[in-house]
Fold this sequence. Notes:
heteropentamer, A: alpha/beta, 7-stranded mixed β-sheet, about 20% helix, C: alpha+beta, 2 domains, NiFe_Hase_small_N_sf (chain E)
Amino acid sequence: MTILAPQVSVATVPVPYRVAGCSTESADTATIALEPVGSPLPAFTPGQYAMVYAFGVGDIPLSVCGIDGDRLTHTVRSVGATSRALWALRPGTKVGVRGPFGTAWDLRSASGRDLLVVAGGIGLAPLRPLVHGVLAAPEHYGQLNVLIGARTPGDLLYAEEVRRWGALVTVDRPDAAWTGDVGVVTALLDRAAFDPPRTTAFVCGPEVMIRAAARELAHRGVDPGRIRVSLERTMHCATGHCGHCQLGPLLLCRDGPVVTWTQAQSVLSVREL
Amino acid sequence: MNGDGTREVKLGALARVEGEAALHLCVREGEVTEARLKIYEPPRFFEAFLRGRAHTEPPDLTSRVCGICPVAYQLSACRAVEDACQVVVDGQLAALRRLLYCGEWIESQTLHIHLLHAPDFFGVDNVIELARTQRAEVERGLRLKQAGNRIVELLGGRSIHPINVRVGGFHRVPTRDELRPLAERLRWERDAAADLVRWVAGFDFPEAGCDHELLALAEPGTYAIECGTPTAMTAPSAAGLPADTDRALPTRAFDIHDFSDHVVERQVPYSTALHSVLDGRRHLTGSLARYAISGRWLSPVALEAARDAGLGDPRQGTVCRNPFRSIIVRAVEVLYAIDEALRIIEAYEPPSPPAVEVPPRAATGHGATEAPRGLLYHRYTLDARGTVTDASLVPPTAQNQGAIEEDLRRTVRGRLRDGEPTDAELTALCERVIRNHDPCISCSAHFLDLRVR
Amino acid sequence: MADGGAPAVIDKAGLDALIAVLLGRGRTVIGPTVRDGAIVLAELSGGDELPYGWGVELEAGRYRLRGRADGAGFAHSAGPQSWKTFLHPPRERQWTAERGADGELAFSEERTPPPAFAFLGVRPCDLRAIEVLDRVLTGGPHADARYRGRRQRAFVVAVECTEPGATCFCVSMGTGPAVGPGYDLALTEVLDHEGHRFLVRAGTEEGEAVLAELPQRPADPATRTAARERVAEAADRMGRTMPPVDLRTLMRDTLEAERWNDATARCLTCGNCTMVCPTCFCTSTEDITDLTGDHAERWRRWESCFDLDFTHLAGGGSVRSSPRSRYRQWLTHKIGTWHDQFGSSGCVGCGRCIVWCPTGIDITEEAHALNAERAAAGQPR
Amino acid sequence: MTEGFLSSLPPTLRGWLLGFAHDTAFPGDIRLFEEGSAADRFWLVRTGLIALDVHIPGRGAIVVETIGDGELLGWSWLFEPYQWHLGALTRTAVQAYEFDAPQVRAAMDEDPAAGLALFRAIGDQVIGRRLRSARTRLLDLYGPDTSRAYESGPAR
Amino acid sequence: MSTDGGRRPKLAVWKFASCDGCQLTLLDCEDELLGIAEEVEISYFLEASSAAGPVPYDLSLVDGSITTRQDAERVQHIRSVSRRLVTIGACATAGGVQALRNYADVAEFRAVVYAKPEYIATLATSTPISAHVPVDLELRGCPIDRGQLVEVITAFLAGRKPDVPDHSVCFQCKQRGTPCVIVAHGTPCLGPVTHAGCGALCPAYGRGCYGCFGPSNSINFPAFIPLLRRDGMDTLDVVRAFRTFNTAAPEFDAVSREEARR
Lengths: 273, 453, 381, 156, 262
């Protein structure tokens, strides 16, 4: 039995971080940049998450949406007490961070292959550092396609950056100024240039969207073992000890959030598993 | 001031009393024409819905009449049901009941002293303000109050609506080991209570008296709490004495089974509480009455504290009829209850089983105990299966209403003789007069003797 | 595991001495004792607190103490608690945080030294349960430091099972009634015409050292034989069995079985089965603050997958909203997906969940029924 | 049954199709299929109501459409990978003709004329009609912003 | 909870038909009382103070049920001057023991208790606060638990969700280490259907839970009622067991009516 024995249990006890910046993404969503006050946490890898603690309120899992040295960025949508507190943070405020936790996208295993990134809503956040990774070394990969679905044009995250990526964007509900695609994100697959057998796909978004997209990709010939999806369940401890995030055989805080469609397909097909 | 020279003082909602009440006072040409303690606490119909319940249920159900003195309700109910079923609970079980009751006395009396009554003597609105100048005393009071709660919590499970009391005894009795830490704390608190008596004795008290009969339970050899015989002391005027006389007067006792022949409730239009009278005369229950009836049975430490506080020696026939000084008597009762609790704990042997069987019986039972604010009487009629067919509850505040209104009249009249007070002054004075008797409005709002028709 | 040298025999006075020695070594001794009409695990100060002469009568949803004429001290089955209560307590502080006037945060890990427990009377099934908890709480990428601290310091006196209850099925789960590895000392209680005595073996050096301090005699063949026979007889007297199939596969194959509806009709979702289970480890976190708001604490407390809010998603409802899905989660996890997550079954066959379920839902009966339903439906899907 | 899908078919085709049918009935609250599972059967509803739903963790089953008397339940069996896109739950007791999908597909291959006619009928009467109505509903759902109820955020 | 300009949040405590016990719980927080008073401004609390602060209030605690027309109007006013409204106790949350009137003719009840019933203006039912105005949180119990009250106030101050679990008493009973009284003694106990919060007191004292915290969030009466019968309760006992302090809670009300029809 191998047991990690860090001096400070950074998996259990938060480490102080300072809010270095925050920007509004949409009405209910903000991106916060965090810098360590003292020693930083071990390095994060795209796809992994941190438990971010708002003082006195609680902590929630937030995927990293940007990694720059010791600086972590997270995009948070205000849906509960803790996310509301984090969403409302101002620069200079201190928070606690635990991590890194969970499985990563594992971009390296897609070396030399076509890449298909499919994101729905706030699901773009954990995929962003993956795209950064590809753009930093395009020579290692084949075709990169980024397909993004957003509820409305105003809900699109990182709009400037997304334009630079050349991503295909579709919205459910256009406004008067929107001249782009309208519809669900899977409809964009027809316009993406990828060779299914040579493709590794990375999918994140609402679970219904993940199910539809992964199923469609598999139908088009992408190997289910090469479709990587990021799943979400309630996480409390992030260390595999509290049991809340179980999804069938998976302990998602440890075995996820990123799993292959091979793993996810059967567990997502059982209601209330 | 109205055009006809009538002056009305209306106080919408009385503060620092338990429950909802208002005051209505009319003054005309220096005379008080009307003094009403108007209780508008919504009625809750306990006596009606007790009908049809099992004979084991009154302790838990009637506890909910009052969150301030639930133990009083539970134990009066137990006594009445046990009386109907001809069961006597005695020995260590009775001692534990008294211990539980001591806890409620300590809690409730310190609550009243510090949080409700003392602010009046310092001219502040509440205990938080009081704590700004009397921090140590308030903290001591809260600690004492907590000690009372700890007794109730240990024996009863929780301080409000304890869960461990049952007809026949308890669901579970504590071990000696469980009581030991409590005793350690109470030994400290006994000194604190002696300090408390000294503190309140130093307050500034107006001269006052009360011309009411005093009604309390009496139990030879002890300061009656959880049992005793109703005993009344004559009002001073009947003996040709002034209302503020401190002399003990003749007493008479009557059997608890005859309670409703002596204490009769009647309804007044302005109140959801029923007023009651003792043998047709106004009477007062509570600390002043208990001290008058049972004072000589206080423990030595309590007697000494009472004497040092200027209450005189009850063994020498001295009583206290100044309602403003009731705060001192309450403090003495706190000290006594702590002392008594310690005595019970030291003599404690766990009884087995924790309750005696109380098989139902078709009969009517009566029970009375001394709630912190006065005598609380319960009566139940059971059928052979133990179903309650009739219930009557007579709480102390209902009994005291007449006395409170008379105190209002007397005090306001006296004040008017000293010159014209402002409305604010008059209001504050009336509130103090009411709070002297620690009225518990929740208790008083739902009762009637069924025979009054 | 040390081979522990030669087995010895001690009597009741030896057991008293054992408790005294363990107390003398600064340990908090936890063992069985009678309280509230049950044999509970509590702190012991002497051997006279052991439940000599007490046995239990067990059925699904029913537990009754009954006297035993033979005066045995360990002839009772699993009680309402397990050692989890002490190793993985119901409520525990994990860290505290202070916010300074300048807004700086300081976090301090809970560092109160863990108690040095001595567990007296650990039944073989429970010893395996402790091993399961070890894997869950210290075997993954992140070890639970508090648990590990208590666990590493704990001294385990196992007692072999000679009196299984009607709800026991450790033989099915391969966890008893003979003791497996992991003990410091192992006892086997023997009562016959030669008297009331215990065969003792040491499993560790500390166990040997403790044993050496006790009044004892070398184990005689008769005592050894009697001990072996009593344990062997116990194996034949198991009240219940699990179906002799791969339970992990059975659970995977029957996720949509009708039988779940049947069990759920009887399930109160009270969570009692999870709380009494010696391996159920789930917890929830509590964040508390004081009135100033500048002092915060993180606590965790036992939680259960039967709680509707266990799977509450932020901004939504519960994933497992139906009682059916919650009961299914418990059972399929316990004997199915536990293997995937932690490399073993989560069930040790102690029968507590059967006894302490108010409506008497029986894990073995449910497994048999699921197996029968699968068989009736033909091949596994 | 006089209305619905069957009545839109020419009589010969109707007879041909019903040749593969067998009668079936379900009580209310029975799950006929799950999203993602194999689409190996389909039904023509004679009486009763079926809800098509999507399961969203934490929110339960969200009903997107209902299928009633005379309507065809299921068309995913026509196209690879023959997997249901939605789940189906009976809301009331249901009586229906049930068809074995592989058998019907094989028959469509064997008799291309009948196959094409059936395919056209499904494309027009079922898929096309539902697509049109879904788009109309989108207009309702995504029409002028309906003000969101104030989220007072009660703790529980 | 952010308040304007960093001032102390204002707390108000209101009373309707009740025994006062739940608001007394605030005064029973001896260790915390002065601390609370430092962190929040107790603006309205008649039982404790004769001073009343100006509206609006950041947090209103409401004790008691609605039994008169005036009270039904008063609670509307309270809602309108309160940013957050938390009901405290079984009366405010489920109508309290006085909701037993809901099963009877109130005119008759009134006549039993009062000689001149015409003096008494009261409604035919006792209803919870939530039947009249939106409520942000309902704190259960007859009476409420002191620890839960402090938790609600501190959580309010920290902007945190109060940790007030909705599961059954059994959860707390097991955490407390009490052997189940149903299983070990055959004692009827409402724990499996009752909301946690009391700390599982009654079983710890050897008695069955009597449901003073009302229904939990996951109840299976068809499986539970037979246990009560098995352990010696007859139909009348079962009806009485659910008709106490939370009698008007919908789940308890329904099961007691169903049992009463037997």
